[in-house]
């Protein structure tokens, strides 16, 4: 059973590490963010056509790609781009898209109550320690009738890489994520109306393992968990990992599966 009052995930990385890692990755991020683009565009399509967005928040905006997409979709509106990684904001600000670029935490939003009509967050909330706190902040910041549209990752993500490492040693080499059932329980208990909540797999293919690990590092999404091995990975272990992962090879290449959660929640209008 997940603790609905506080779903703190002790196995998630320290937020300072997350912020530092994504700040370092700001310059290389857009060049390797194919999955992030695909997922974000699918999330945009999930936003109800009737949704109002006089003031919207791009939560975990990264380089600002979807801040600019939101500005294009919701014209003559005010946009806020927020991220925990200052390096990402420095990259996003010159490109525009939002009126404000703010460094902040999704679990403690630096925004007034009932100040936004739409919160859009794509592939950022999996790094939050307490998803229930994220939902409570969304409930606080949204105006009545306002919408939270988010995508995140759940258990099963990078399972091929995880299984291959398990065949090599007992260390934590792959970032851990919540179960989809945890998302279901937390959303149901949030006080927000669940409009839709589902998980869809996205599979990317790579010519070799090095291409996958290079992309994860360029995204800032390489292993950040406690329990990861310190120092360089030995050559013998890397050879064993390559051999283990080769058992996953398909005609298209080496698969990397991402289990993506898509959710649309709405703040209830009280009489």
Quick recap:
With 271 residues, this protein is of the alpha/beta class. It contains 10 helices and 7 strands.
Question: What labels would you give this structure?
Answer:
271 residues, alpha/beta, Rossmann fold, globular, disordered N terminus
Question: What would you say this structure looks like, in words?
Answer:
By secondary structure, this protein is α/β, with parallel strands linked by helices. It has a single domain, classed as Rossmann fold. The protein is 35% helix and 23% strand. It has a seven-stranded mixed sheet with strand order 3-2-1-4-5-7-6, sandwiched between helices. Helix 6 (131-141) links the parallel strand 4 and strand 5. Helix 1 packs parallel to helix 5 (86-92) and helix 7 (159-166) packs across helix 10 (235-246). The radius of gyration is 19 Å and the shape is globular. It starts with 14 loop residues before the first helix and ends in a 5-residue tail after the last strand. The model is unreliable at 1-6 and 222-228 (pLDDT under 50).
Query: Can you tell me the CATH class?
Result: Alpha Beta
CATH topology: Rossmann fold
Count of discrete alpha- or pi-helical segments spanning 4 or more residues: 10
- The CATH architecture would be 3-Layer(aba) Sandwich
Give the DSSP E fraction (strand runs of 2 or more residues).
Answer: 15-25%
The unreliable regions are 1-6, 222-228
Global shape: globular
CATH superfamily: Vaccinia Virus protein VP39
The total beta strand count reads 7
Mean pLDDT across all amino acids: 85
The span between the termini is 34 Å
Strand order in the largest sheet: 3-2-1-4-5-7-6
Q: Quickly count the domains.
A: 1
Helical fraction equals 25-40%
Largest sheet properties: 7 strands, mixed
N-to-C SSE string, H for helix and E for strand: HHHEHEHEEHEHHEHHE
Give Rg in angstroms: 19 Å
Based on helices, strands and strand pairing, what is the structural class?
alpha/beta
């Amino acid at each position: 059973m997940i603790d609905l009052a506080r779903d703190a995930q002790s196995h998630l990385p320290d937020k300072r590490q997350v912020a530092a890692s994504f700040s370092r990755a700001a310059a290389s991020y857009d060049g390797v963010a194919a999955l992030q683009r695909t997922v974000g565009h699918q999330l945009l399509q999930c936003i109800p056509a009737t949704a109002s967005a006089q003031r919207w928040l791009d939560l975990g905006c990264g380089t600002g790609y979807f801040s600019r997409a939101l500005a294009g979709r919701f014209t003559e509106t005010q946009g806020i781009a927020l991220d925990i990684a200052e390096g990402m904001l420095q990259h996003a600000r010159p490109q525009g898209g939002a009126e404000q670029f703010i460094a902040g935490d999704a679990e403690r939003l630096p925004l007034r109550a009932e100040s936004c009509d739409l919160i859009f967050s794509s592939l950022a909330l999996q790094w939050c320690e307490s998803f229930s706190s994220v939902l409570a902040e969304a409930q606080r910041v949204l105006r009545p009738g306002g919408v939270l549209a988010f995508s995140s990752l759940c258990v099963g993500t990078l399972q091929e890489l995880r299984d291959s490492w398990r065949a090599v040693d007992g260390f934590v080499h792959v970032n851990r994520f919540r179960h989809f059932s945890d998302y279901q329980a937390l959303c149901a208990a949030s006080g927000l109306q669940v409009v839709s909540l589902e998980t869809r797999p996205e599979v990317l293919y790579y010519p070799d393992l090095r291409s996958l690990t290079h992309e994860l590092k360029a995204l800032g999404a390489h292993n950040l968990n406690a329990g990861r091995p310190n120092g360089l990975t030995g050559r013998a272990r890397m050879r064993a990992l390559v051999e283990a992962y080769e058992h996953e090879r398909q005609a298209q290449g080496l698969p990397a599966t991402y289990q993506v959660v898509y959710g649309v929640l709405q703040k209830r209008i009280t009489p």
